[in-house]
Amino acid sequence: MRTFAAKFDEGERYHGSRTGALVAHAYELMDRGPELDREALVEMICDRAVDLVGANAGDLWMADDSGTPRHERFCGTRPSASGIAVERALVTLIAEQGDQMINSSEAPLLPGIVQRCEALGRERSGAVCVGLHRRDELLGVLCLHRIGGGRFEEWEAADAQRFAKFAALALHQMAQRERAERDEVTGMPGRTLLLRALNDRLAGDEPFALACIDFDGLKAVNDRLGYEAGNELIRAVAKAIGQLLRPGELVGRLHGRGGDEFVCLLDERDQVSIDSRCGVLEAALDRADVPAELASSYLGVSVGAALAKGSTPAGSLFSAAESAMRERKKERRRSQGRDGDER
What we know:
- This protein is α+β, with helices and mostly antiparallel strands.
- The chain folds into two domains: 4-180, Beta-Lactamase, CATH 3.30.450; 191-335, Alpha-Beta Plaits, CATH 3.30.70.270.
- The chain has ten helices and nine strands.
- The protein has helices spanning 4-32, 38-53, 81-97, 113-122, 154-181, 191-203, 218-225, 227-244, 271-286, 314-335, and strands at 57-63, 69-76, 101-103, 126-134, 137-146, 208-215, 250-252, 261-266, 301-308.
- The strands form two sheets. A five-stranded antiparallel sheet has the order 2-1-5-4-3, sandwiched between helices. Strands 7-8-6-9 form a four-stranded antiparallel sheet, sandwiched between helices.
- Strand 7 (250-252) and strand 8 (261-266) form a beta hairpin.
- It is elongated and about 80 Å long.
- The termini are far apart.
- Mean pLDDT is 88; it is low at 1-14.
């Protein structure tokens, strides 16, 4: 029979190893988290939290612009219906009341929640949900499940809560970086993100197209109605372009505030498909849904693109696409009798 001292030493080693895991996971989030893209960071948070507390499953809910959590990531074994019901109830409670952490084994005495948590306990399962708070802002909710292995102990829930503070900081830092790298008028990728995506594409083996899209009418709107009206036109065209892209394609702005040119990375693989796609984009964007008071000034778009294959230099690719776009702009202006028009 083990002595109390032996049990104490064993417990100290066990808790010490878990503390070490918490520190390791926390530093990994700080070192790598903000540099990852959103999907990779969310996956990393979910996986590390499950490993930290010995959970079977993890769910990450991210708050939208209104502060309402939306389910975004799942990892591990699917919880039972009771576990899912408890999770949804606790996520809602954290969002509405600002709780930091709720353990199903210590459920709040609220109608419906106690009964759901008791049903989960009868399955020898448990759940703990932790708010990802940055100051007074709720960024999301991390939910962990232990399925058939008993409840989460108080110190395990505390570990999850400490880890959540680092996760929230990593998400906050990533969001700050994204805001800095995005175009302030449209919210779409700016120069840094666009060039990063382009270099990633160029490093691969698959051919693709870089397209430049330029629209006419912005100068007239700026001169007649002011720059904020011009920004409304830019946003309307940006939204229309985004709706025409396929999954995995990208549109951004290189030149920032006031520019009327967009850059797209398209999945076209040969010149024939590029020419066809440019025609489709032009036809659709000529009919873009712009604010009624700006419609008379909006004169449609010109699209030019270049094919990237092999080790095409980025500079040469941009030059070829812009040259094709400007030639197309001249053609459209001639056909519309606007040879001497300014933008």
